[in-house]
Amino acid sequence: MPIRTVVWGENIHEHTNEVVRGIYPEGMHTTIANALNADPEIEATTATLQEPEHGLSAERLAATDVLTWWGHKDHGSVSDAVVERVAERVWEGMGLLVLHSAHFSKIFKRLMGTPCALKWREAGERERIWTVNPGHPIAAGIGEHFELENEEMYGEFFSVPEPLETVFISWFQGGEVFRSGMTWRRGAGNIFYFRPGHETYPTYHQDTVQKVLVNAVKWAYNPHANFRQVTEAPNVPVEKALEPITERGPKLHKAGEAGYR
Amino acid sequence: MPIRTVVWGENIHEHTNEVVRGIYPEGMHTTIANALNADPEIEATTATLQEPEHGLSAERLAATDVLTWWGHKDHGSVSDAVVERVAERVWEGMGLLVLHSAHFSKIFKRLMGTPCALKWREAGERERIWTVNPGHPIAAGIGEHFELENEEMYGEFFSVPEPLETVFISWFQGGEVFRSGMTWRRGAGNIFYFRPGHETYPTYHQDTVQKVLVNAVKWAYNPHANFRQVTEAPNVPVEKALEPITERGPKLHKAGEAGYR
Amino acid sequence: MPIRTVVWGENIHEHTNEVVRGIYPEGMHTTIANALNADPEIEATTATLQEPEHGLSAERLAATDVLTWWGHKDHGSVSDAVVERVAERVWEGMGLLVLHSAHFSKIFKRLMGTPCALKWREAGERERIWTVNPGHPIAAGIGEHFELENEEMYGEFFSVPEPLETVFISWFQGGEVFRSGMTWRRGAGNIFYFRPGHETYPTYHQDTVQKVLVNAVKWAYNPHANFRQVTEAPNVPVEKALEPITERGPKLHKAGEAGYR
Amino acid sequence: MPIRTVVWGENIHEHTNEVVRGIYPEGMHTTIANALNADPEIEATTATLQEPEHGLSAERLAATDVLTWWGHKDHGSVSDAVVERVAERVWEGMGLLVLHSAHFSKIFKRLMGTPCALKWREAGERERIWTVNPGHPIAAGIGEHFELENEEMYGEFFSVPEPLETVFISWFQGGEVFRSGMTWRRGAGNIFYFRPGHETYPTYHQDTVQKVLVNAVKWAYNPHANFRQVTEAPNVPVEKALEPITERGPKLHKAGEAGYR
Description:
Strand content of chain A: 25-35%
Distance between the termini of chain A: 39 Å
Largest sheet of chain A: 9 strands, mixed
Order of helices and strands of chain A: EHHHEHEHEHEEEEEH
Largest interface: A-B, 73 and 73 residues
Structural class of chain A: alpha/beta
Radius of gyration of chain A: 21 Å
Number of strands of chain A: 9
Strand order of the largest sheet of chain A: 2-1-3-4-9-8-7-5-6
Oligomer: homotetramer
């Protein structure tokens, strides 16, 4: 069975800005989904902010292996209930790819527990992305570096938690650096942040960028993504202890009582 | 100047449960604060749920280097505004010690981005805590292991992010293990979770436990805890780029405009 | 193409100790290889200390995707040249599974840079292995814990570097804990240490242990394991710089000269 | 008592190259030691390759809290016995600062377990070092970035293990990036690699570089650096088990026998 991937797009600039519409006439989400679908192991569909429940019903998420997220202009319009639903699905094991300006998305900030802030400059400058972890599956076949002739600059300090691994670091023409590819796990879910993708440049049409996305979907995919117990706090009764023990001392809870939350 | 430490206590069981009152007649927070104040480098005061703003006004937090947090029965009563205020102060560099049942506190879940769930059993069984990182400052002088004759059991899987470092692992008489001492950094703030401390046992009167707390306050202390920029996302105008660059290509933002959040 | 796996065995106790011979009449390496070969994605062969070059010629290693290593009695007899050859192949991307008493093997100590010491007791006591990272591929299908009724005890402090991730932690009947499953990457090579496997107990016949080994081979496998450049330190001449720069200031090296090593 | 620091210098270029002698007439080690001694908490002395035992006798190392290491031209002349002695002292808890071209020193490769290779170019180009971990003690007071107008370029992939934390990342004028400040722990010893310091430029006279070194010595210092047990593998006899157990099953070792190494 292929990796069931949902490509989520905010889908605003494509309708309000001529430059963006010119580059992504069907929407950035469609371009990304097409790139993923070119790989036989991936089956990608799209969802957008404007759909009911932003296209992310509980049923659809339950049948999603990997979710990719691009947003920029209107993070605030994403419903808190949907954000919480996505977070729970990530904890269960759904993979999540967070793209470019989605560093400020509700879901990314929710899962990181930090502001996820950074410096930025929109000057169409050159970005050169260096692989600092060539053995990582996301870097497979990427080479030691690749370039994007026109991109927005993102600069450090990027206020995210120290990652599990750093895969890519960007060099910018104007003098900054940025940790452009980082991984985390939250519950059983794999998370990858990938920096490139400003909407006024054709970044998601670029071959190497598409290859990174394909690699990242495969890396983030967890075929056993059903860890419901990640959110459960079960009491283990004394008589079911794995080693025989005798209850001792004073107690706060009665036998079988649920804990406080 | 000593390390300005605030010991936060939920302060409920001490008033509603005779066992707890008997062990901690002045409240757990007072016992912990006394233990910390025995070290000349620390100056500890207390704050409780019942005080206005739970004793954590913006002014007080701004003058706090390290905050310790114990709660159990009524996590839900902690105001969301105070939780957010504490989170921001942690990102700026305030240290945070999260104690025992505070694994389910709003502030810990907020900073971890995960459910922070675990197994539990209240049977007064033996806990033996092993040092798995003897060179870590929090383990200084602790020895290879120490015991708590009566403690509540907490068992894995503990759904927190992979820590920066694991310092302690617990063995329980009933057959479980638990990562009992773990560190993370969020923004510029150091965070330490320490497992022991069930309210019906005299854990915080124990010498070794007190030594761990003293070590942890010193480790978490950041003398430069004023990183306001952790939450800022400044635009760097083209003409102020560190290397001379010329603007190219299409733009979404006008010069000097604030980014979307 | 299946994952080309070589199961290396010291192959001494099986010939000198009746108990071990009784449990593993064809050698532990054969038992492990058979378990791996039961998975259609893996093609496992064996190699032993007694073969020329310990069965690990340069040609064979070049055609090996994952190597598993069990040794105990005679680590010192492994040739330093073969150890260095294996290390180089790991840096290029070959996976390595280090089993039980191989914590003291030359190759593991070489790749860790630490003593890899631990406590031990041979008393046939109960070991219960807890999954502390349920989303990790090595833990797929393992469940929250499993038991080995008779095993040797290994206790902390285990002097290895902080791992990339901790997957399993053991509880021992006699009161110790141990980080029993840990991952590292060295160069492009994935490394997994797995604790169980004392030769006087039938551990490698156990289903769950075999499943962990199969999972670990699949996790360690890097289909692009040819990162020769991991050991190279190339000079980048000024005229080949990616951005045009002009040479300035005094120099130590002449153009094109090799660096010092 | 101040932090007893030994600044080790290869001390060759200062005698054979006029440029280097002009910048560091008393040797790079003396310049670094003077910078450290300007801080009242540090007491720095020097040692060089040419001294007996390279100035690193067992007695002196036993009385050393932090060692800094700069070498370039003649790594091979460092005695293997001294390297092993330094490694053991690091495992016990001595801090180690590895500077610039010492990435290829025997001691650094020994402790990392990897080739520690990188790209390089000697063109006097501009290096801009960015802080990517502002709350880390080594970054205290350093600011968000600082510049070295003339430095040697080091480029990725730098084949070291994924660090505990990345503190600094360099931008180079010629288009490369490099992880310039990284931390690891080996045994109980803290290790920091800091990239700048090519001998033909006055890098170690620079204020910010000196501040980083002072911060790093303080961070690496472990007041309890006597963890001899890091290299020991003690047998725990059955009758001394922490929990009462009865010996079961077959055994390989007799009671009290030392394990194999």
